[in-house]
Amino acid sequence: xxxxxxxxxxxxxxxxxxxxxxxKEALSYAYLNNPILQSAREDLKNAAEGTSxxxxxxxxxxxxxxxAARAKSTGAGTQPGSRAxxxxxxxxxxxxxxxxxLASLKAQKKAFDAQVQNLIISExxxxxxxxxxxxxxxxxxxxxxxxxxxxxxxxxxxxxxxEQFKYGQLTLTDVATAKANLAQxxxxxxxxxxxxxxxxxxxxxxxxxxADNLAIPELPNNANTTLxxxxxxxxxxxxxxxxxxxxxxxxxxxxxxxxxSNISPxxxxxxxGSKTNSKTASPNGAGIGGNYQPNRSSxxxxxxxxxxxxxxxxxxxxxxxxxxxxxxxxxxDAASAMDAAVQTAISAWQGLExxxxxxxxxxxxxxxxxxxxxxTKQEFEVGIKTLVxxxxxxxxxFKSKLxxxxxxxxxxxxxxxxxxxxxxxxxxxxxxxxxxxxxSKYYLRAWNVLPNVVTSN
Length: 457
Prior knowledge:
Signal peptide: 1-20
Subcellular location: Cell outer membrane
CATH topology of the largest domain: Outer membrane efflux proteins (OEP)
Keywords: Cell outer membrane, Coiled coil, Membrane, Signal, Transmembrane, Transmembrane beta strand, Transport
Order of helices and strands: HHHHEEHHHHEEHHH
Pfam families: OEP
Structural class: alpha+beta
CATH architecture of the largest domain: Up-down Bundle
Distance between the termini: 49 Å
Number of helices: 11
Protein name: Outer membrane efflux protein BepC
Radius of gyration: 38 Å
């Protein structure tokens, strides 16, 4: 069954293989320049920065303070004035907090992983809409061409009716009927033109270019060959499912982090050193004939601080319970996402098979309608068929051509929906000739917690 489906697809699109790169070129341009994707990438960069915050518990806190003081006394029996400058360096390093820092770092990694999958979701959603816009521009243009041709057919029919009316072979009613039908197909033509204009406007939203000289694209190369293989791939690669799984692991680590942060003992190492340079005025004063006597002093101190929470009002246990509830909820969400991934795969596969059958049906219908119209024309010329019969035959062929066009492009969208269900409707999955956005670059950059590391990319 599946071999027959893809053989039929290949036949349908064989005439466009020479221009198959057009869609890839359009998607490549959109991938690099569309603000929707650029915004989603900025969200991921922001999520990556959470890693720097999670590393706080492993890094020392270093502070330097400088103070200056001046004292001056007046009056009999007072002490001389003085000046003092003190520099103090303090270092605090957390040594133990129940593993809270490690748990927070692991949780942040899973939060980043989830955001990577969210970016893929955004990319797949964009690619789906962009491809639909591309296909819609093609389909509405073809529909307009079919309508334009239909108008010409009805004009010829009207001319033929008017000619026969001159010789008394048809009545004025026949002429009026032909004119009414021509007016109707012109109205259809106007609507088709409006649909094409709207499709081109939508195309420009996604691609930033005019929808000119578009070619029917080639189908994805790596389509699954069975529904079962598609379902298995969806279970492994569906980004919505992977995001939910990452959320489960995030919440598992968050229970640990929340518990340790709220009720675990805390052991800190503190080290400080200070140096003071002071000058005290001699009894003669600091003025003419007087002087300042210098004095230097320094101190160093190292301490271990152990803090054991005993009672904090009970709010800490509420926080722990909340983290456990969040974990349980994420498990249910992951199970639901699994069902949704399988359902999406089945729906995409069924859509492809449905449009295959629809396409075959319309092909047969066009062939039959073409034959019927040819025979009706001949019978109309010899008076066996009426004008109404002829107009109906023309309308049947017109509708079958539109149906064939719609089914053809629906099948194209359905083929890309298979890719989306498998989690491969991305620039990399479609093998677009561009430099792919690399999330790991920004995650690794966030590990650099040294000062003065500022980049804009």
